[in-house]
Amino acid sequence: MDLSNKKILFVSSWYPTRNNPTHGIFHRHFAESVSDKMNIASIHVCSEENLTNEIEITSMVSNNVLTLIGYYKKVKSNIPLLSNLLRYSRTNKVYSKLATEIEKKFGKPDLIQLNVVMPAGLFAKKLATKWKIPYIITENWTGYHPEDGNYKGWTMKFITKSVVAGCKAICFVSEHLKASMAAHGLINKSFIIPNVVNTDLFKPATIKFGTSTIKFIHVSMLDERQKNVTGIINAFEKALSQNKNIQLDIVGDGPDRRVLENFCNQKGLLNKKIFFKGVLLKESLAEYLSEHHALILNSNYENLPVVMLEALSAGLPVIATRVGGIPEHLDGSNGILIDVNKEQGLTDAILSYANHPEKFNSDLIRKSAIEKFSSQKVGEKLIEVYKYVLKIA
Fold first, then answer.
1. pLDDT computed for residue 75 by the predictor
2. Are residues 159 and 221 in the same domain?
3. CATH number where 340 lies
4. What's CA 320's distance to the chain center, in Å?
């Protein structure tokens, strides 16, 4: 089936905005991965604190993707019921305006791709009903996992079940996420499609071995509950006592950054052996990754962390916990798997790599990552889903 004349509209719960340019950026990459094969548009709605007007809509075209972002004034009520009603009302109003603009600038879509069910799912389903077209879902929220536990509440469960039941297919980033959602009764025709990486941006590491310090890197939003950065710091300190030729750089900025910096300072490691770099946008992150030897992830739960795929695309091996979809793509050829909340296991993994980094082949790691996560490969998988849905719609 030729899809060149088809129009796909991406409706995303998470998407980059002017105030948060990295939020859900992988959904933009999904759109870009198929934008040279068909007509693609993307819409997203979010609130903004200091908006001058009640609603503002921005429009741009980048990499063949027409993107409309609708902003509304942030709700400031302290009454939960009123706050929820106002938020729904404003969001609904913005989506209505975006739908009108899409019809003018893009035309009626043939299919909607909903990226993450909550909170955009209800509106995506309404648009699909309005236009009498099918919709599919791509999902990568960790809330469905029991370790996270944020899939709760009557309203959320009712909306999610309705949205999942109404879609023509649901694409999971991992088998593990598929199983977690199935445990909640969220079942439909399914496909496994990993997150996409700009493998042209994340290029092979430039750092060399030999006399240079072995540089490890951790990248996250520094949320202790999920990422367990304290465990990384403790394990690194133990490894440091046996190998002084190692360094840890921590990239990101989140709720626990200051606590973590103080924790490192108390150990006498801050700005000596452990360095906090703050947030790095994609181009800067890609360059910075290439200056390191290996990535460390010590998560308590995950789906399929994009930074792991980015590191592999740069040829870096990854030390990571055996959670979520990580074991589906990480093995002895491209990294080291460790158990959750086992600091000694992480220490041993750090030392194992630091003492024998030559056992990993960066070129092979990168080649394998391109075959799985490149825009071309992920785009091909998405197109197969579109063909399946449009034939039965």
1. 84
2. no
3. 3.40.50.2000
4. 16
